[in-house]
Specification:
two-stranded antiparallel sheet; mainly alpha
Length: 167
Amino acid sequence: MEILYCENCNAEVSPVEVHCERCGFPLAGTEKEKAIFIGRQTVDQSTLSEASQYQKRSSIILYIVGGLQIFAGILSYMNNEFMLELLIYLFIGLAFIVFGILARKKPVLFIGLGLSFLLGLYIMDVIYDPSTLGRGIIWKMILVGTLVYGLISSIKERNIRKRNRSL
């Protein structure tokens, strides 16, 4: 029996298969169907590359937010000498840094957690002092927007990888 290989991913396929089991390439399809499939593959690869960039940016944002929380805690402690306040800031800062580290492994989960945590902090801050809503609004929008886009890109990446294991 002759061994055949998929034109797209070079996986071994049997002569009776209609689609490659690994990547879904239409083995028995017309040239037009094959071209459409390869076009989709190219778009998917571009989307995966873009998602990777946004995941890295989201991790960096989480690192920055974590570092700023730790810095704010140190400044607060130097001014007020409240150890509990310092510990709270350190905990929050370290949580963001851990989310940033783990976002490389499971981006949907940890970018989502970081975004939720950040929004929760903003909401608690506004409840405590409503005047903080307008302070730094542009930075808040940039941070939240970057994390939202990183989360959306990560979800797209996950869906593409589920659909096509060869990418």
